[in-house]
Amino acid sequence: MVVMEAIHHVTLPVKDLERSIRFYTEVLGLKQIVRPPFSFPGAWFEVGNQQLHLTVVSSPIPNTESRWIDTKARHVAFRVKNITEALTWLKGKGYSEEQTDPAFRLKINLNSVAGFPQIFLLDPDGHLLEINSESSH
Fold this sequence. Notes:
Blueprint: E1 9-14, H1 17-27, E2 31-33, E3 42-47, E4 50-56, E5 75-79, H2 83-92, E6 107-109, E7 118-122, E8 128-132
Parallel strand pairs: 1-4, 5-8
Antiparallel strand pairs: 2-3, 3-4, 6-7, 7-8
């Protein structure tokens, strides 16, 4: 039997690469890293020992029309050291639970049954993202 040691990367399809690069660097604070010279556009980011890859697609991305946060849906989760700092950072960027614009709406559950605090938001292409930490501090 083969034993999987880790997730190396997750790839998300995007429509507007520059818009997505700004989101992942300026909002989530990811570091963009060198990407091999593939024949199609994209960007790579470092996330601890793993990576996030973005690839440009021309066709519509499924399940992005409603732009609402369903925490049971397919998503990517990022771990941070301090959930309170992450929440303060996101609020400083205009994100909140009260936001009427779905692009800036948060779903916050600091006392999740999962056993760790969670923040959910959407990226510019409607991909559901989770930010969590080991504890609520």
